[in-house]
Amino acid sequence: MIFPDEYKHVGVTKSVCSDTEEPIYFLTDYLITEKESPQTGGCEYAVYYVRKNGEGLLRKVESLETIASGEEVVKYDRELNIKDRTLLIETAEKLCTGKVNTVIFTGMDKHVTFVHVPDLANILELEILDVAPPYPSWLSLVVRRLEASGIFGDLQVRFTEKVIDLRRFEGKNTVFPCSASGLKGKCLDSDVLTENGHLLVGCEISKTLFEMRFPELEYSFINICPFKSEIVVPSKSFITRCCRSENSGLVNISGFDGAVVHWGASEYQVAEAIRKLVNRLRKNE
């Protein structure tokens, strides 16, 4: 796959590149040419890799190497956010059928880039690992909102969700950490327990609080902390949250690299954690 890191490296001209006499802007690594097609009456495109030398703003072209031309190239008919690399790769992959192997995109700011031989394997998948209710889960809501803002556009990532529904444990003898969840059962922050046999669904903090409040009671325990849980377990590289701030940062759980944020993390902290995780994963590729 060829996908320029920045559209500033892509030049566009209506001249057909038959020689290399004309100098070229120093940032231009790729050149797109556009000309009218006598057969169709529309436009025909070619994409070249530019070899150049010299110094200054304009440099001498040594050679133009054809990447794709003619029927191999199509131009997408709508303007997109061309900073969203995942969107462009996925869109190009759908359009590359038959002879087509290259798609040219125009941004809403009129800049241009292209994707040649799009490869979905170049998109990094990250799992949002969380528990619910509420729905959507807090972490899913934050990540999807950040994703929609375009803040992850340059990272070339796609998010999937693995959200554990705690409603499966609802019952009159089940104890949850907090009444704010809206789960049906009892809650550590609002109920007084007097009988044995309750099921506590929470983390190590919840377990400690239960035993401090009700030291005489016997109970069973389901751990939902991603560090120790048997049900909240990642299946790929992930972003998750923990109520203990000291656990925040880059981690490895069940053999998968991930990032952990505190339950009270801000959107900025979530975005920063994801960016750090992606940087680590890309370095390990």
Question: What's the quick description here?
Answer:
With 285 residues, this protein is α/β, with parallel strands linked by helices. It contains 4 helices and 17 strands.
Element layout with pairings:
Blueprint: E1 10-13, E2 24-25, E3 30-36, E4 43-53, E5 58-69, E6 73-80, H1 85-95, E7 102-107, E8 112-116, E9 124-132, H2 138-149, E10 157-165, E11 174-176, E12 186-187, E13 198-202, H3 204-213, E14 219-223, E15 238-242, E16 249-253, E17 256-262, H4 267-284
Parallel strand pairs: 1-3, 6-7, 9-10, 9-15, 11-12, 11-13, 13-14, 15-17
Antiparallel strand pairs: 2-5, 3-4, 4-5, 7-8, 16-17
Describe the structure.
The chain has 285 residues and is α/β, with parallel strands linked by helices. The chain folds into two domains: 7-118, no CATH class; 123-285, no CATH class. The chain contains four helices and 17 strands. The strands form four sheets. It has a five-stranded mixed β-sheet with strand order 1-3-4-5-2, with no helix packed on it. The protein has a five-stranded mixed β-sheet with strand order 10-9-15-17-16, with helices on one face. The longest helix has 18 residues, at 267-284. The model has no long low-confidence stretch (mean pLDDT 94). It holds the Pfam family DUF7714.
